[in-house]
Amino acid sequence: MSPKELLYIEDALSQLKFMKEKCDAAKTEVTDANLKKLIDKVSKKNQKMFDTIYALVVTTAKGGV
Question: Range of 35's domain?
Answer without folding.
Answer: 3-61
